[in-house]
């Protein structure tokens, strides 16, 4: 399953404190431009995002997923947080 591969790649790359992957693919099946790849929302909490801009964080995630972005993943929503940013949202 694609979500499991995404999880494995992101866990290896970021050693996250939290990882959540939501598969929204069924809601988007057959829409214009989708050549069969899935739609996913990823939340990652990792110290590796410290002192990184939002763009840099997203680039790191895309790099970790590599060629999956060309076929298996059609759309990816990323919420990349540091541990301190995550704890602020939970207080």
Which structural class is indicated by helix and strand composition?
alpha+beta
Kindly give the count of domains. Answer: 1
- Mean pLDDT across the residues is 89
Query: Quick one: CATH superfamily?
Result: BolA-like
Largest sheet: 3 strands, mixed
Number of helices: 4
Supply Rg.
Answer: 13 Å
Q: Hey, roughly how much beta strand do the residues contain?
A: 25-35%
Helix content: 25-40%
The separation of the N and C termini measures 34 Å
Give the second-level CATH assignment, the architecture: 2-Layer Sandwich
Shape: globular
Q: Quick one: how many beta strands? A: 3
Q: How would you concisely characterize the structure shown here?
A:
Helices cover 40% and strands 25% of the residues.
Can you walk through the features of this model?
- The chain has about 90 residues and is of the alpha+beta class.
- The protein has a single domain (about 1-90), classed as GMP Synthetase, Chain A, domain 3, CATH 3.30.300.
- Helix content is about 40%, strand content about 25%.
- The protein has four helices and three strands; from the N terminus they run H-E-H-E-H-E-H.
- It is globular and about 35 Å long.
- It holds the Pfam family BolA.
- Keywords: Cell cycle, Cell division.
- Belongs to the BolA/IbaG family.
- This is Cell division protein BolA.
